[in-house]
Amino acid sequence: MPSQIALVDCNNFYVSCERLFRPDLKGVPVVVLSNNDGCAVSRSNEAKALGVRMGQPWFAYAQQAKEQGVVALSSNYALYADMSNRVMSILADYAPQHEVYSIDECFVDLTGMPQLKALSYQMRDRVIAWTGIPVCVGIGPTKTLAKLSNHIAKKHPRSKGVFNYNDLSDAQQARILGQIEVGEVWGVGQRLSARLAEHSIHTAADLRGAHTPTLRAEFGVVLEKTQRELQGVACLALQDMAPDKQQIVCSRSFGQTVHELVVLQDAMSTFAANACVKLRAQGSHAGAIHVFLRTNRFRPDQPQYNPSFTLPLPQPTQDSLVVNRWADYLVSRLFKEGYGYKKAGIMLSDISAVTTHQTDWLEPAQAPASHLMAVIDGLNQRYGRGTVKVSTQGAFKTWQMNQNHKSPSYTTDWQQVPVV
Fold this sequence. Notes:
Blueprint: E1 5-10, H1 13-20, E2 30-33, E3 40-43, H2 45-49, H3 62-68, E4 71-74, H4 77-92, E5 98-102, E6 105-109, H5 116-131, E7 135-140, H6 143-155, E8 162-164, H7 170-178, H8 189-197, H9 204-208, H10 212-219, H11 221-230, E9 248-258, H12 261-281, E10 284-295, E11 308-317, H13 320-334, E12 341-353, H14 370-383
Parallel strand pairs: 2-4, 7-8
Antiparallel strand pairs: 1-6, 1-7, 2-3, 5-6, 9-12, 10-11, 10-12
Helix pairs in contact: 4-5, 10-11, 12-13
């Protein structure tokens, strides 16, 4: 019996979340913008039909969008995360083995399930009925073919939102793969597809039938695994739990250009706190801190300066106060007067489990602050992020990102719950 791996993908997810509480946006071209209202990161079908591209810089398109009646909204990540959790909890009821791949995608193992087509439509209809989020279901013997099947389910109305690759004959499978550009294959992308074109590989069928030793020699074992997956050989297993991150990055483009050291340190305190929350959530500590500053590369008329520094810590830590002190010190060392900074960030690396600790004979052991951090995390989870924070965090607003068109937090803030 071939494996039946389903990929359930939410359609235009950010836009769909916004439309839940804005019925006036149905049938209207809608675009959700990235941080600082910079680029288009989600588009309704109506906006796509008008030619709005994914990642399109909004400042260059804003006037045309206004003339075309396109509604632009700022990203509302609290709303999107909450709706994602609701969708994923519904999908988890259908199979014990599933993998939440991203905020709007989930792999579900349906192998051995009876009446698979009816089950897939039931799963799709339940998500729509219980959350209002439209989804499509693609099924295949491997994760890569499930991804392609989902692509077909979205593009072809006759599928009615569900497409099963396993139902096709060998000839039909070859014909379908021959109609899909190789750049649509999971993990290939635009840059790699240009290199593959030099080897006369233009479609998914070309990649599936390519000479394997040559493919491995030219492009490595990762692309060979993709080819095996297209051939129906599973090389990528479902992961019930996401692996711990080996690097944690927190960075942001500023809403306004920053020229003062204290403002940069304020921003870095926020980044350090957020990174340490993620570190503690996976039960890890970090042995190194990397801090970077960036000027505006889109303004070549202004002086450019992009410093960074990596500092190995005397002892691994997950303590926000310790990380904040080192980050504050590094920012003061990297900062130079006369530059306008547009972005900054912190990366925690050399990450290991808290149960693994290499002591240093030359450094006295630091007293653990796990209890204090647990109390802070608990208060912030209960009363909202930033309820308890370092005194140097959040004093300045100039660096915080622009969100001029942000919708309310309909499902996560009592003060913004819709009233009927």
